[in-house]
Amino acid sequence: MGLPALLLLALCAASARGLYFHIGETEKRCFIEEIPDETMVIGNYRTQMWDKQKEVFLPSTPGLGMHVEVKDPEGKVVLSRQYGSEGRFTFTSHTPGDHQICLHSNSTRMALFAGGRLYREERFRLISESTNQRVLWWSIAQTVILILTGIWQMRHLKSFFEAKKLV
């Protein structure tokens, strides 16, 4: 039940061009741009969550962001960085040719804001951790009770045998 994020990206190469597209929370979008040598590329973006009930984009939420990776024509990584929910990334091409620009959401963070299914997943994890902690303390309490009962039985049996003058 992944809600798509809105991403506004403006790539500025020789002339200004803009891209507007939707990307799901686990999707990865790659673009190939022919960029001349020693050209500064600036990308502006904004991520937003889509509310299916209201059918509107919600304002950016904390923790929601994008990972940007840029490879030059030889396949070398020029830029690989995590960014926030809105901002700008910049890189300079050092070799002319087709550069691959890939964007994907930081879906682990986005999962907290993705709606019903992933909210339930987080709630289930919290309940599981709480239950695990209670089971741990219950087993510790049982162990302590067993040890104390054993000590009491040994003292009681010792006093019993001493009273009967068997020891």
UniProtKB/TrEMBL annotation:
It is a single-pass type I membrane protein. Residues 1-18 form the signal peptide. It is found in: Endoplasmic reticulum membrane; Membrane. InterPro entries: Emp24-like (IPR015720), GOLD_dom (IPR009038). One of its GO terms (cellular component) is endoplasmic reticulum membrane. It comes from the Eukaryota. Belongs to the EMP24/GP25L family. Keywords: Endoplasmic reticulum, Membrane, Signal, Transmembrane, Transmembrane helix. It comes from Bison bison bison (North American plains bison). The keyword Membrane applies. This is Transmembrane emp24 domain-containing protein 4 isoform X3. Residues 28-167 form the GOLD domain. The chain crosses the membrane at residues 135-154.
